[in-house]
Design a protein that fits this description.
This protein has 649 residues and is mainly alpha-helical. The chain has a domain of 72 residues. 71% of the residues lie in helices and 3% in strands. A two-stranded antiparallel ribbon has the order 1-2. The N and C termini lie far apart (64 Å).
Length: 649
């Protein structure tokens, strides 16, 4: 087994690394134990303060990073035979970017939550769960081995269950939480099997050991590497909501809106992309796996975008847009555009957190209403929410100079080099994204108000604790793309240059894979122009339909047909899963309960109990309390022993 190849740090820097995940864990413990005992102000201060402190420490690590990755060994965790698993953190370019993302966007969402959840009786418990979510995600991205990643992986799964079903007195919310938990367990089984196969192949689960050995292989598409990468990707399909394990994410909207923002922007769904980028050398050596990932990502992007066209729940539209955007990211990974995928992860975190929190501000003003058919004309009553939501919508639609334009353009350019057909479908997805997002914007903020008089009377802008995070995220969604300017504008791609060392083992293993000719400037200009033009056309169509013609989607009782009915009902995938998987399992469980458990197991277990009770009831008669009887029984017993002893001899 290899020894760790990265330098080990034992200094004040190690203390900072430990405090980054430890502070949210302390916040979880204090708020969890204090729940209704602590004043809401104090609970909010602890919840927000611990994550902000973690962000400050992560920023300190980032600004003092000298480009040399290092490991912080805390203690030896598991030692069995040849298996050695330290509890240690790996600090490098990738983990630093993820630390800033998780703690930075996470702290903004925490601040927003202080206003959004201010009237909830379980305010302290909510912040405890949010802090635990951040801790689990930090453990996932900081761990130096796959087992620590898996612990954080399971932790975010648990937290999603707790937060999606936070309002646990509502049965549909509990069902949504259970659905998320169970579907993720399916993916996690594949991830766990992949870790087992990694240990069997490389004799280690530590990144440095595995990647160093993998880099020496040089041969592509070895069956064991394909098996490892596909098993790990099964885990990513569950965690990052790819076909066919995506159905939990739209239902996760049952949780409070800040939870949706945290899941979709900064934590859970980014875990799968992080895992693939972290394991990039393994995937570089498995082009077959990469092609499969690209196909799944593209299929997910197109599929989810079509569903988003017909949804009327403001959070459901955003949920399907997340599934679609995650498909984009996996499409980029499939064409080996690792840094482009991470670029889109970052910009998506900015504008998707903004959009979800903006949706929460709308829901807050509308007294809990989420159906965009009963909104309209809100831009005058909610000016800050409208302006920031508009910025988020422009960003996700790929309109320059907002962040989404730069990351999506770079991503599609990489896909164009790989396959013109995939690029065309990616462009179609971009068209649908711009259309359904501006459909959402126009129906919510333009036209006349379609709600009740009581809702109209209640309309007001959200408090500063909610609008300030919107403003911060709007600024990031505006300028965030400048960390990765296209080559036609600048040769200095800040993010790509920073993340370059993360791909070192991949370049060592397969140099030829990184020798592709880059697009010429004219082609880049053409691709950018086409991308923007497609988005603008979609926006114009949405404007004509929902502003000029003042079209309002039909209510649920109105019969619709054809493609609209199909996408409105989400292709009946949930019904199909229920018919093919859930119902047969329930029937089997019911049959086993009646015929095996009640018919066989219960009689056997109860029979032993009845025999024991009957024996006890009868044997107690031997305890008469009469000394004469005890002497008689003793004499008879001695006589029997002597007789048996005589005959046995």
């Amino acid at each position: 087994m290899q020894t760790n190849l990265l330098p080990v740090i034992n200094s004040d820097m190690a203390l900072f690394c430990l405090l980054i995940p430890l502070l949210p864990l302390i916040g979880f413990i204090i708020n969890g134990l204090g729940n209704r005992k602590l004043p809401k102000g104090l609970a909010g201060l602890i919840g927000c303060g611990t994550v902000l402190a973690s962000f400050a420490l992560a920023l300190y690590l980032f600004t003092n990073f000298n480009g040399q990755p290092y490991v912080v060994n805390l203690f030896d965790w598991i030692s069995v035979g040849n298996l050695r698993i330290p509890f240690s953190f790996q600090i490098d370019q990738l983990s630093l970017i993820m630390l800033l993302l998780v703690t930075g966007v996470g702290s903004v969402i925490h601040i927003y939550s202080a206003g959004y959840m201010s009237h909830d009786i379980n305010f302290g418990k909510f912040f405890a769960f949010l802090n635990l979510f951040i801790f689990s995600m930090l453990l996932l991205v900081m761990g130096s081995n796959y087992v620590m990643m898996f612990v954080g992986w399971e932790g975010v799964g648990l937290c999603s269950y707790l937060l999606i079903g936070f309002w646990n007195k509502v049965t549909p919310y509990n069902n949504a939480a259970k659905k998320a938990f169970i579907i993720n367990r399916i993916g996690d089984l594949g991830f766990l099997l992949g870790i087992f196969l990694l240990f069997m192949t490389f004799g280690s689960v530590t990144y440095a050991d595995i990647f160093q050995q993998a880099a020496q292989l040089h041969e592509v598409n070895q069956p064991v590497i394909i098996a490892i990468t596909l098993l790990l990707f099964v885990g990513a399909m569950g965690k990052s909501a790819q076909l066919p394990l995506y159905t939990w994410l739209p239902d996760a909207m049952a949780g409070p809106t800040p939870v949706s923002a945290l899941i979709h922007a900064a934590t859970m769904v980014t875990a799968g992309i992080y895992m693939v980028i972290r394991s990039n050398v393994l995937y570089t050596l498995a082009p077959t796996s990469l092609e499969f990932i690209a196909i799944i990502g593209l299929a997910t992007a197109v599929f989810a975008a079509t569903i988003g066209l017909a949804q009327n729940d403001i959070k459901k539209v955003l949920a399907y847009s997340t599934v679609s955007q995650l498909g984009y990211m996996f499409l980029a990974l499939g064409v080996m555009a690792y840094t482009s995928s991470m670029f889109h992860v970052l910009t998506h975190a900015f504008f998707k957190a903004l959009l979800f929190l903006g949706a929460g501000s709308v829901i807050h003003a509308m007294s809990g209403e989420q159906d965009i058919r009963f909104m309209g004309g809100l831009r005058k009553k909610l000016p800050i929410t409208f302006l920031t939501f508009l910025i988020g919508t422009l960003a996700i639609s790929g309109i320059p100079p907002f962040a989404g334009f730069f990351s999506k353009d770079e991503l599609l350019a990489q896909v164009y080099e790989h396959s013109k057909i995939m690029w065309a479908f990616g462009l179609l997805t971009s068209f649908m994204t711009a259309f359904y997002m501006f459909r959402l914007l126009f129906l919510t903020f333009f036209g006349t108000f379609r709600g009740t008089e009581e809702q109209r009377h209640h309309l007001h802008e959200s408090p500063v604790s909610m609008t300030l995070p919107l403003i911060i995220l709007a600024i990031l969604s505006t300028i965030g793309g400048f960390m990765g300017l296209p080559a036609v504008f600048s040769e200095n791609h800040i993010l790509s240059n920073f993340l370059e060392p993360v791909l070192g083992f991949s370049r060592l293993a397969l140099p030829s894979a990184f020798e592709k000719a880059h697009l010429d400037h004219n082609t880049e200009y053409m691709l950018m122009a086409v991308s923007v033009a497609v988005a603008v056309v979609a926006i114009v169509i949405a404007y004509v339909m929902y502003v000029s013609k003042n079209t309002v989607p039909a209510n649920d009782k109105t019969e619709t047909g054809g493609f609209h009915k199909l996408v409105y009902n989400k292709y009946y995938i949930d019904e199909l899963y229920n018919a093919l998987i859930v119902n047969p399992i329930m029937w089997l469980s019911t049959g086993l309960h009646h015929f095996v458990e009640k018919g066989i197991i219960d009689p056997i277990v109860n029979g032993f109990g009845k025999v024991t009770l009957a024996g006890g009831r009868n044997l107690r008669y031997l305890q008469t309390g009469a000394i004469g009887f005890y002497i008689f029984a003793m004499v008879i017993s001695i006589a029997l022993i002597l007789i048996l002893n005589f005959f046995i001899r």
